[in-house]
Amino acid sequence: MSSKPAATSESLLDELQTALAHGTVARRVETLRRVTDLFVNGAVDYSDEQIALFDDVFQCLMHHIETSAKALLSNRLAPIDTAPPLTIRALAFDDLIEVAAPVLSRSERLDDAALIETASSKSQAHLMAISARRVLSGAVTDVLVLRGNEEVIQSTVNNPGAEFSERGFSRLVNRAEGDDDLTTCIGLRPNIPRHLYLKLIAKASVTVRARLEAANPPLAGDVSTAVQEATRLARSAPSAITHETAIAHALVKSLFEDGRLDEHQVAAFAAAGKFDEANAAIAALANVSVSIAENMMVETRAEGVMILAKVSGMSWSTVKAIINMRDDLSDMEPTDLGACKATYDRLRPSTAQQVLRFHRMQQSAAPAA
Question: Model pTM greater than 0.90?
Answer without folding.
Answer: no
